[in-house]
Amino acid sequence: MMRTRHLPNLVATRLRAMLGGDAAAGVLLILVAVAAMLVANSPLAHGYHDLFHGKLTWTPIAKLDSLHLWINDALMAVFFFVVGLEIKREVLDGQLSSPARRRLPVVAAIAGMAVPALIYLAVAGTAMPLQRGWAVPAATDIAFAMGVIGLLGRRVPASLRLFLLTVAIVDDLGAVAIIALFYTASIKLGWLIAALAVLGAMIALGRRRSHSYAATIALAVALWFCVLNSGVHATIAGVAAAFTIPMTLGRGGDSMLLRMEHALVPWNGYVIVPLFGFANAGVSLDGIGLAGFVDPLPLGIAAGLFIGKQIGIFGAVLTAEKVGFAARPQGSTWLQVWGVSVLCGIGFTMSLFIGALAFPAHPDLIEEAKLGVLTGSLLSALCGFTILRVLTRRPAG
User: Fold this and answer.
1) What is the rounded distance in angstroms from the CA atom of residue 16 to the CA atom of residue 122?
2) Contact 268, 79 (CB under 8 A)
């Protein structure tokens, strides 16, 4: 029992030992993406599609009638719960806890979301339904980007690693807001009121000195179920629930938030996100020639990620320092800042997720969006790695 319970932690430890702390999750995502593409373009393609999209013979929740929906609407709610815990911790006692600390990453993240969206609209156009994909290139994948950084070792200063992590966290918060505001279906008021009532109960529970894990988990599941049926995307429940988890430190210098985050991070990084990636990254290239890559949708997404991210983030950092608003990360060169800005164009998890939300009635456009995400993310990863590996010097000592 104990071995099974701690399996993700053991896997994480072994991968970290082999690859280095930050690199493990990112390398795993790369392998998962490659595996998904290979399977989707092999004789196993039909079985791959049926596994994730075929109707389940039985499901306890009628709305979730396929494995793909269980992954995207249920397991990804846990992913967003962990994202919410990370955001709350950073805001209360991290790099977003003071105006001086959050000034540069917040500005860089906003520019890094706005410029890719504008480039996407310039390439793909504003006609419906393509217009709905504007947010797909706005996201940065924390695990993937930090994984590439981890492979570079000491070539990237610690201050710049922290900058990338903080930008990605702010980026995630922006992506959550975008999903809630722009990718919400018709609202069912009764379910929404029920969700707000459960959320109120979680807030009240979080303010009590004695915290019950069982009650907290039960209320979180109830909140997710109400949101799932309300029309708001179910994953928003994960973030909302996370914001109610108390961070008040106990006698041992620990808190419910820190314990939950510590327990869930391995499951998130080594089970949930790779499973999501394998279920969503498989794109069939059958019949897609070079012209398929330059269709407006995939080209707009790829250009937004690869070009828009680096222009937005590097331009924001450069402008902030020139006008005296904030200095670039300590000990970093402009070449290193540029390389990290390019790495921020790795969209993968969040971009694939938003792509599926953007075109629910157009499966062909979802596939094109995947193609654009994978192309833009691959270009960003390879070019960012090359800039930081080849064009920057390894520090002495």
Assistant:
1) 41
2) yes
pLDDT band at 232 (very low <50, low <70, confident <90, very high): confident
Domain boundaries, the chain: 66-184+233-390
Look up the CATH number of domain 66-184+233-390. 1.20.1530.10
**Residues whose CB falls within 8 Å of the CB of residue 265, separated by 6 or more in sequence, listed in order:** 82
Which residues have C-beta within 8 Å of that of residue 306, sequence separation ≥ 6?
342, 345, 376, 379, 380, 383
Per-residue pLDDT reduced to its tens digit, 96-124: 888 888 899 999 999 999 999 999 999 99
Query: What would the pLDDT profile of 299-335 be if each residue is shown by its tens digit?
Result: 999 999 999 999 999 999 999 999 999 999 988 999 9
Task: Determine the Cα angle at 56 with ends 55 and 59, to 5°.
Answer: 130
Q: pTM higher than 0.70, yes or no?
A: yes
